[in-house]
Amino acid sequence: MNPIVDAVIEYRFLTKLRSTFIDAMLKKISKDGRIHTTFNQNVTATGRISSAEPNLQNIPVRTPQGREIRKAFVASPGNILVGADYSQIELRVLAHLSGDEALSSAFITGGDIHARTAAEVFGVPQAEVTKEMRSAAKAVNFGIVYGISEFGLANQLGISRKRAGEYIKKYLERCTGVRDYMKNAVESGREKGYAVTMTGRRRELPELKSGNYNTRSFGERVAMNMPVQGSAADMIKLAMLRVHDALENGGFKARLVLQIHDELIIDCPVDEAGPVSKLLHDCMTGVNIEGEREETARIGEKLRLNVPLIAEVATGKSWFDTK
Fold first, then answer.
1. Residue 310 falls within a domain, yes or no?
2. What is the number of domains present in the chain?
3. Omega before 308 within 30 of 0, i.e. cis
4. Do residues 96 and 217 share a domain?
5. Cys-Cys with 164: which of 21, 150, 247, 300 at CB 3.0–4.6 Å?
6. Residue 73 in 3-state DSSP?
7. Alpha-carbon torsion (136, 142, 145, 147), positive or negative
8. Tell me: the pLDDT tens digits for 132-167?
9. Same domain, yes or no, for 114 and 197?
10. 3-state helix, strand, coil in the chain (%, to 5)
């Protein structure tokens, strides 16, 4: 292959980064020198909060060059940013909803969830799990509740459809709780006409009655995914309420400024960093246990999982430093 091909691909990538994120963000700077997004509660069907004008949830994070953009988002003068995000929250919700012993045990005992899943699926000691085995287990772990197909997994891992199908088959044979959850979720969706989160929030599923195969298949994926992603969305919203109340009741000057999927960011005076970091961690990991408001306490009870909640906290001058 001609060496110029790689250079052209990199040029296109960097050009898109500049036009889509850097140049576009510069136009959104307000008179106070900050960028202010608009958060929407009722746009996504799963209940996740979305961001618009500009969409700060779309800032790249998977590439080194893309992550550099986060360095432009800094704390107020004299402050630092305190950030935390849930560790594998949707997989933890899946473990709870499915009651799968292998998946739940991996979270309860800790360690590398993907390596443990690979060991279970491929029937080898964890010390003998290869990079390929772990990659396959990770892809299936994250993709299974979205109804990942042989074709999709094959493309993601760069393997044959036959091998991808074998990975999915082995996973479902070992993780029978997940397999049964997926089957029951679809059957429940057909029977009731909707999927429901742990808090009781519904999403209608008219797609399951469609005469079009692709539409029905989409409905089946939604039936499996909505209880998981929707419950995780409920959890982060409840955590936001807990953080707001704790900051206000504690007399802190720190303020919650950003929510990105499973991540919360606080703009915090330097001298409050220690207690605010602990507060953020405790509010997120204890979202289903404690609460100042009666209504959040009731919701938190519904979100109690049978596996631990983990939130990883980091601090820094920029958003880049907190991830």
1. yes
2. 2
3. no
4. yes
5. 150
6. coil
7. negative
8. 889 888 888 888 878 888 888 888 888 888 888 888
9. yes
10. 60, 15, 25
Q: Does residue 222 sit in the same domain as residue 94?
A: yes
Question: Cα separation of 91 and 207, whole Å?
Answer: 25
Half-sphere exposure (Cβ direction) of 74: Cα atoms closer than 13 Å = 8
pTM of the model: 0.89
- Nearest-CA neighbor of 296 among 249, 248, 234, 229? 234
Per residue in 56-69, pLDDT tens? Answer: 888 888 788 888 88
Q: Is 27 exposed, middle or buried (0-12, 13-18, 19+ CB in 10 A)?
A: exposed
Report the CATH number at residue 220.
Answer: 1.10.150.20
- Evaluate whether 157 touches 148 at the Cβ level (below 8 Å): no
Looking at 229, 247, 274, the residue that finishes a domain is 229
User: Residue 255 sits in which domain range?
Assistant: 32-89+234-322
Structure tokens at 52: 């618009």
| Distance separating alpha carbons of residues 88 and 90, to the nearest angstrom | 6
DSSP codes, 286-301: TTTT--SSHHHHHHHH
Which residues share a beta bridge with 89? none
Closest CA to 127 of 135, 136, 118: 118
CA atoms within 13 Å, Cβ hemisphere of 14: 7
In Å, how far are 1, 55, 240 from 234, measured between CA atoms? 49, 20, 10
